[in-house]
Recover the amino acids of this structure.
């Protein structure tokens, strides 16, 4: 009985905690609805992230050759996730620098 009394407040606290995502539809983690909701982030602008979070993202300041390929693409929204948009030029560039 004592354990139940101790767990009840914890269960109430946990059940009251929810993650509020303004764009969330049917419980999915929605980062974006359109390309304009996304932006480049990180010291080398190597990450594609939700625009409202991009300025808060901190990364190490290193440069990898594949970052040069990012100029051939753009940060956009694919399936409600911010990511670099693939295209032929971008993919070819990645293949060349990764060899």
């Amino acid at each position: 009985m004592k354990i139940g009394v101790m767990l009840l407040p914890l269960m109430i606290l946990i059940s009251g905690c929810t993650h509020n995502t303004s764009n969330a539809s049917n419980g999915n983690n929605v980062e974006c609805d359109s390309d304009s909701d996304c932006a480049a982030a990180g010291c080398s602008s190597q990450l594609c992230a939700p625009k409202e979070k991009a300025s808060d993202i901190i990364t190490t300041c290193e440069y990898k050759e594949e970052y040069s390929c990012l100029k051939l693409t753009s940060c956009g929204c694919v399936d409600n996730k911010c990511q670099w948009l693939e295209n032929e030029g971008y993919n070819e560039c990645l293949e060349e620098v990764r060899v």
